[in-house]
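Saturday, quiet lab. Running sequence design on the structure tokens for the scaffold JK sent over.
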């Protein structure tokens, strides 16, 4: 089984002897393009696992240590968010964390793993800001919220709209909020490469979609309702989980059983 065949043979199981594979060293450097090349921040957590695995000089140990470290970081962030969030928000965090898709991606070697780990923390902070009856808790300082938000956006700069959440921070003036928002923008802008992919292949054109929605909102509503009615089963599968970059699916009855 070659390295580039693993993704296409999901039924093949690994044996202990497979762990003796020597670490793969390609002869040429492969350039990462599009979304994967925007920021190195999203790869910091799995990179720690790879660095630990390098001590063994075994490729598979590096691979699985990277996944393990990503999952441990996700689990720690999950516990912190449950401690921080109001009770009602905690239920939604548990629902999010128990989705098979979340667990699968959070333990992957992907820039998505960092964002998936930080998202419940941001949700917990926002829930605490909006819950005026919630008592103050240790670790609920806006400084930690701002740092988490900054790390979240730096992992994938297209999420820059999340910086608007700073305006929900209570007990600080609007002037302070504007200053914080401006500083975060300045910090992130260097990572925003030109949006040359606005006309992506495969019929996806976000710029055209925005034009259609702004010119005829009713048409957009019609398309949205038709999409729900015709693709509801695929949407259900997407919520619970399609796995791997080849989108492996579970038996259909398991999706309904899970919900």
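Result came back. Writing it out in full:
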């Amino acid at each position: 089984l070659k390295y580039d065949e693993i993704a296409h043979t999901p039924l093949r199981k690994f044996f202990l002897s497979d762990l003796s594979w020597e670490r793969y060293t390609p002869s040429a450097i492969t350039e990462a393009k599009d979304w994967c090349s925007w920021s190195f921040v999203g790869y910091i957590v799995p990179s720690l696992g790879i660095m630990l695995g390098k001590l063994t000089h075994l490729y598979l140990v590096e691979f699985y240590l990277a996944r393990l470290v990503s999952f441990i970081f996700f689990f720690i962030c999950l516990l912190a968010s449950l401690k921080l969030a109001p009770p009602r928000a905690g239920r939604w965090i548990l629902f999010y964390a128990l989705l098979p898709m979340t667990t699968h991606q959070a333990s992957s070697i992907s820039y998505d793993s960092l964002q998936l780990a930080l998202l419940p923390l941001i949700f917990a902070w926002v829930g605490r800001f909006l819950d005026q009856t919630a008592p103050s808790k240790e670790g609920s300082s806006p400084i930690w919220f701002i740092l988490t938000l900054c790390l979240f956006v730096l992992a994938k700069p297209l999420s820059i709209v999340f910086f608007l959440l700073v305006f929900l921070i209570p007990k600080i003036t609007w002037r302070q909020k504007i200053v914080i928002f401006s500083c975060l923008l300045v910090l992130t802008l260097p990572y925003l490469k030109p949006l040359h992919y606005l006309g992506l292949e495969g019929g996806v054109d976000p710029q055209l979609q925005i034009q259609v929605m702004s010119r005829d909102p009713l048409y957009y509503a019609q398309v949205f309702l038709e999409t729900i009615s015709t693709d509801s089963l695929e949407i259900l599968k997407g919520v619970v989980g399609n796995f791997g970059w080849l989108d492996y699916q579970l038996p259909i009855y398991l999706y309904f059983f899970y919900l």
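Notes for JK: Confidence is low (pLDDT under 50) at residues 194-202. DSSP finds eleven helices and no strands in the chain. Ask whether to fix the surface positions before the next round.
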